[in-house]
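Instructor's aside before we start: the two examples that follow are unrelated to each other. I chose them only because their records fit on one page, so don't look for a connection. First example below.
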Amino acid sequence: MIRPLSVTGRSPDLSLTVQVGRHGRSAELPPQRTRSIDPELDLSQEPEPLVRQRVAAYGIVLSHRGLLATQFSELTAVPGLWGLPGGGIQRDESPARALLREVMEETGQRVQIEQLLDVQTDHWIGRSPSRVVENFHAVRIIYAAVCTAPTDPVVNDVGGTTAASAWMSPETWEDQPWSMWAKVMLERHLTDRRSGTALN
């Protein structure tokens, strides 16, 4: 079992501290999921994909109005799906500072970070929002956060990868179409956040 404890430093010099321990019972590793190449992409007709790694910070943000969510725009590979607020970490920016900035840009909300929850990675080959073919490695740092004075969400970064933002009921969020990685993070951590039990 690997449990993230902290992320320190500023991009691109980040340090992740984890606790590695034996799980209480013998556990098999989950099957490895492979991402296929974008089916609409003919690599024989394209230049060599640009290798790119993007480290980003996201938040499972709760308030008395519910769960804060963002909807992907037409510039992404998953338009219309919902995800967690957050985004790329800029140079000389800490992950926590990046999350606060991104949440404001995408939703107009001021939030307080409670703790580091998870680190998730993904890999695929496809077109970026700028239409460049990329061999893309996503590293997502997931935090628990709270908004004590929620307002109606508004997307301040117009014309980007966020089309809309909204507060969703923590009891009915699963009724919405979510990006795969965000749904996995919510299934893993949202129940504990709502009940106030220790997060893991």
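Example two begins here.
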Amino acid sequence: MPSDEVTALIEIAIRERTVLRVRYRTTDGHEEMHTIEPLAIRFNQAGHRVLWCWARDGGHIEQFLWDGIESAVATGETFPLRPWSDPEAESQV
């Protein structure tokens, strides 16, 4: 789970559209580094807190389980507003 400082950094990055480098631990324990454009913090249908983002590595919208985020660093780069819709919200309509 991210520290309070990392949580604050992610919240600011969402608001200011700042690119982040995130260290993430998968559910099977593998550590990964991702360059992301953070979009929103939500709860998914299973009740898990997740970070929705544009994953630059994969070129698609992705969600990261909040508990798997170990660290984040702002790159100093900003990104343009990316049109997206929250798939979890759409499925509840």
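The domain at 4-91 is CATH 2.30.30.520 (SH3 type barrels.).
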